[in-house]
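User: Show me an example of a complex going from sequences to structure tokens.

Assistant: Sure. Here are the input components:
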Amino acid sequence: MPTILPLVTLTTDFGTRDSYVAELKGVLLSEGPPDLRVVDLSHELSPFDIHGAALFVRAALPRFPSGTVHLVVVDPGVGSARRALIVKKRDMTLVGPDNCVLSYLLDGSESLYEIDRAQLGERPISSTFHGRDLFAPVAARLAAGAPPESLGRPIESVQRMAFPMVEIRGDALQGRIIHVDRYGNLVTNVSEATLRGFLGARAPASMSLMIGEHAIRKRVDHYAEGKRGELVMLIGSAGFVEIAACEANAASLLAAEVGRAVRVVCKD
Amino acid sequence: MPTILPLVTLTTDFGTRDSYVAELKGVLLSEGPPDLRVVDLSHELSPFDIHGAALFVRAALPRFPSGTVHLVVVDPGVGSARRALIVKKRDMTLVGPDNCVLSYLLDGSESLYEIDRAQLGERPISSTFHGRDLFAPVAARLAAGAPPESLGRPIESVQRMAFPMVEIRGDALQGRIIHVDRYGNLVTNVSEATLRGFLGARAPASMSLMIGEHAIRKRVDHYAEGKRGELVMLIGSAGFVEIAACEANAASLLAAEVGRAVRVVCKD
Amino acid sequence: MPTILPLVTLTTDFGTRDSYVAELKGVLLSEGPPDLRVVDLSHELSPFDIHGAALFVRAALPRFPSGTVHLVVVDPGVGSARRALIVKKRDMTLVGPDNCVLSYLLDGSESLYEIDRAQLGERPISSTFHGRDLFAPVAARLAAGAPPESLGRPIESVQRMAFPMVEIRGDALQGRIIHVDRYGNLVTNVSEATLRGFLGARAPASMSLMIGEHAIRKRVDHYAEGKRGELVMLIGSAGFVEIAACEANAASLLAAEVGRAVRVVCKD
């Protein structure tokens, strides 16, 4: 039994210049419980960027109260043969397309369901807007307390992609930029734990973070440390090594984007 | 008696960099019922674009629960002689300026009211921000259950514009692009019903959609069909013929924008 | 005792492409009262623009119901020695960094508190995201009714900046552009009261507003007055003199931005 008022969160790449988000909210509020709260997480994800969306929901959704229903619609394959999913975890329920966007939230303990359109009755379902016609009605019903079994068929597995792994090549950790934030901070896939394991007994001061021809040696605790424009590394709020520039935009300074290689090396 | 908790939706061209939306929400929440839910539909409509806003609300507002109050503020004529309206439909109440923005929601069955400032008491009403000083207080009172008669005078008619009609010229349907969405899909004013009527007994395969020098012949069911970059036509989620490009941006490929002519022709 | 359902507003420079706003909302909804309403004011403030944010909250927050908790996170100094604040006013509670962003809301009657991390228990607090780890948990507790004294230490003063003052130089009022809005309207720091005092017994028609080489003489009541493209002055919705261009963008026409000097002069 949920201890909160019914809550549905929305994560899409729809933007809000078009009416898509508004139509979807209308369906949720019409078909959901009368005291439903709908919370916008983002509608500004890059169109069709499954990796970016997967990172977004990995960081955000576990922060929400137990019982929250999360609607995640980044869905370039809408209308094709890709399945529509309900994923029931212990503390949240996910609704979205079977296209890897939920991958980084899955740990094998989930109950998985393929949404069965027949359970939604006679409604028309467009082939281009499942967010409105399929996912929102399902999320509304889940928020009202319907069990996933009443809306879909249990399935064994879903499409998954692996989190981009760090490699050890010789004496270096080989990683990459996985996200560039609004401030131009470059988030890598090198976690704090991985970094600590790699450093082992070596002196932290011996470490450099290489990106292209740049060697970043200054490690700081927060963004306001360092001289203006200086490139620094730090552990960001998601627990990954970041490259930042004090009062400046590291992405611009380094002309860096998602996918760019980084290396952590140590000089003894 | 409403079956939902009080609900006010917001559709504006204010953006959220300025404080306008925030001020308006403050008034709604201060003067509305204590359990009011305020739902953002869009604040990113193009400044002063009445046609775009009219299409937006036509697509979105009918999706909301009966009893919802919809505030629509795209209002280049704020402070001028244009009237301020309440439009009461069977299943929704609209509040906004009398500048055609509500046109595509009107079918003649509505009760129309001109807002009477005197009903709002002694409050100051700026001449540049009726959204905050006039429309929001009215929407707050309507959401709390006040009847429209208590806030305005019945009127017989309001400003209206016609939906942009398709014409038949010789053997062709002549339409135009009425919206370009975030993904670059080009929405035309040719409805599915109009297309079906035009085709009649002719073979669907004989149909071409002409835009400038391009003839689009491939008709698909959803965006993921077709080869990468291929131009296709389909029926979009609002029931209109759309031009899309598989995994690409049709608007960029065709350098097309709102107003551009399209023609549907058949070769027998 | 609040007369409204618990309400927390959010004002940040986070944007919504990153997961920062979503993470913060998750914390608020997890740790706040079960019927909490979270209302977005803006996430599109210019990164690190303390002055712009201070003007924004000055205009917006006083519109909200008594008892509202306002979270304001524009925080370039996150993780540094800057303090984290609770400011209790008669009709609102503010939570944010001690970096002047709340200055224009302070009148000396407030109770001021420095947030005491120890009151939040054993939770991890990142050095780069106090919005999520420090301010949101505090706002959630305040919204649930916790007194500020239970979350922080009383302090005597906070960082403040003065509102940019108008100067009288010879026969002129010397002001400046303090905000450019979405429509290109240029908001100055010359208030209606200041203007009235300066004019005194002089004829309003003798007044000119100078910006660079331009002398603006036409004073209007609202934006729709005047000829298309004509530069006009008016009193905007926040009570300050604005420069606008009828159906056009004054900021573009004048290549004007925040900080640009303006002068009000009178010819007798």
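The lines above are the inputs; the final block is the predicted structure for all three components together. Residues 130-143 of chain C form the longest helix (14 residues).
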